[in-house]
Amino acid sequence: MSDNELNSEINRRRTFAIISHPDAGKTTLTEKLLLYGGAIHLAGSVKSRKAQRHAVSDWMEIEKQRGISVTSSVMQFDYDGYRINILDTPGHQDFSEDTYRTLMAVDSAVMIIDVAKGVETQTQKLFKVCKQRGIPIFTFVNKLDRFGKNPFELMEELEKVLEIRAYPMNWPIGVDGAYQGVYNRQLAQIELFDGAGSQGQKVLPSVVGSVGDPVFSEMLGSGVHQALCDDIELLDMAGDSFDLEKVRQGELTPMFFGSAMTNFGVRNFLEQFLRLAPAPAPRLSSAGLVQPADSKFSAFVFKIQANMNPAHRDRLAFIRICSGKFTRGMAVLHNQSGKLLKLAQPQQFLAQERTIIDEAYPGDIVGLFDPGVFGIGDTLHEQGQAFTFADFPVFPPEKFARVQAKDTMKRKQFVKGITQLTQEGAVQLFRQADAGMESYIVGTVGSLQFDVLEYRLKNEYGVDILMNHLPYELARWLVGAEVKPKSLRGADRGMFVYDVKERPVLLVSNEWALRWVADNNPAVEFFPTPAVRE
């Protein structure tokens, strides 16, 4: 394949995540983007959970029941010459770890903000990760069909809370939070909500192309029109000028107003976003930057999912392609194990719908059958190369429970299920020192993960469990000469356990207890994650 062909394929890729606080409309916006891409013909409203249709991107049964996303979905489709990879992340804060890993695999992010609620806590956390990674952020202010905050107030909130300047690409039309539509600044045209109930949008171009056009005044009424004129004048005079370089560096966010539920402003947002969002970027590795246009194939694993198809009991590893061309059946080196693997059945996704693919390019997300070799963060590359991509962040668990099978006859299924779900990265597994193997200690970032663990063990592995929540909130990995339960003073103030790699870990209930143990064991170092020292 020529360099020109490879570059052409790279430049038409757009790989992005959608981030937001729960209930801001993330999955609904994803659905509408898929609708425009022709990937689905009837969008499933996330609100109508009791109806037959569910959102395409929510595939796990528990998601359909609760109306929330708890795993990151991957969806691919074409639109207007672009190949789009959307990663729909879990909105619930208990699944932020999965979201952080997903953000390692994207080149930009779409941040959804509820027009009435503004910047919420989970949005702040996710934004912070994007900022750390220098990911360009595009803001979609959602639910414009409802009463909402003043747009200037929202801009100020972005600047104060998230410390990022905003450039509005369009502007809400209406007074005191009762909006009728938007004014497109670039095209100088008005787009009003379609009152006919078709949930589309009606575009009404101006004759002259200026917000001062009397045609606008007739359509809107003089009061609303005057308010719009004043707002646009203020924006043009005092607002930031548009600077694509600042957008790419994550210093300026293009801001769009619309309503995913009614489809209003979604198509315009998609087209502008595709034009402005970056193509696949170089990736940092142990051997320096890996350029997408490098002819040799490389990729990393950012997600592992068991039982996407319960009938087949399969495990899929999701990889993000970083360089070169991927072809079906190619042999690649799995850096961590040193094994040569043949990638025989690569798949791309529309939630649960899968298609076997013959080729893929940098920016694409591909699913590979996992024979139990892959781990999150693993590097794949062609033979003759030797590097690993930058490490993934590890999050210390904050909630703990003792988990065992109700029926001891199902111990084998229990061990298999809990081991596979641990490899997905949803929970962290520990065993208590000097205890038998009937039970495990499970650590999670949030309590909702326990519900998902219990649900999936029952429904995917046929195992009912007994779960006993433990009073610990901190885990510390211990480094020192021969750290053992008996040699650690104050180990009885917490619980001494080993992780899956047999590294000693102490679970304690609070910072005070941790300080006491640390002060009484000066030869031992305490780390919040195992990645500091292997």
Topology:
Elements: H1 3-11, E1 13-19, H2 26-36, H3 61-66, E2 73-79, E3 82-88, H4 96-103, E4 108-114, H5 121-133, E5 137-142, H6 151-162, E6 165-168, E7 170-175, E8 178-184, E9 189-193, E10 201-205, H7 214-220, H8 222-238, H9 244-248, E11 252-257, H10 266-276, E12 283-285, E13 288-290, E14 298-306, E15 315-323, E16 326-327, E17 331-334, E18 339-342, E19 347-350, E20 353-356, E21 359-360, E22 365-369, E23 379-381, E24 399-405, H11 411-423, E25 428-432, E26 439-444, H12 448-461, E27 465-470, E28 474-479, E29 495-499, E30 504-508, H13 511-519, E31 525-527
Helix pairs in contact: 7-8, 11-12
Short description:
GTP binds at residues 20-27, 88-92, 142-145. By secondary structure, the protein is of the alpha+beta class. Helix content is 25%, strand content 30%.
Keywords:
alpha+beta, Alpha-Beta Plaits, 25% helix, Rossmann fold, 534 residues, 3 domains, 7-stranded mixed sheet, single chain, 8-stranded antiparallel sheet
Mean pLDDT: 82
The number of distinct helices, counting runs of at least 4 residues, comes to: 13
The class by helix and strand makeup works out as: alpha+beta
CATH arch. level architecture of the largest domain? 3-Layer(aba) Sandwich
Strand content: 25-35%
> Which blocks of ≥5 consecutive residues have pLDDT under 50?
41-54, 56-60, 66-72, 91-95
DSSP helix fraction: 25-40%
Measured on Cα atoms, how large is the radius of gyration? 25 Å
Report the span from N to C terminus.
41 Å
Strand count, sense and closure of the main sheet? 8 strands, antiparallel
Name the overall outline.
globular
E-strand count: 31
CATH superfamily of the largest domain: P-loop containing nucleotide triphosphate hydrolases
Number of domains: 3
CATH topology of the largest domain: Rossmann fold
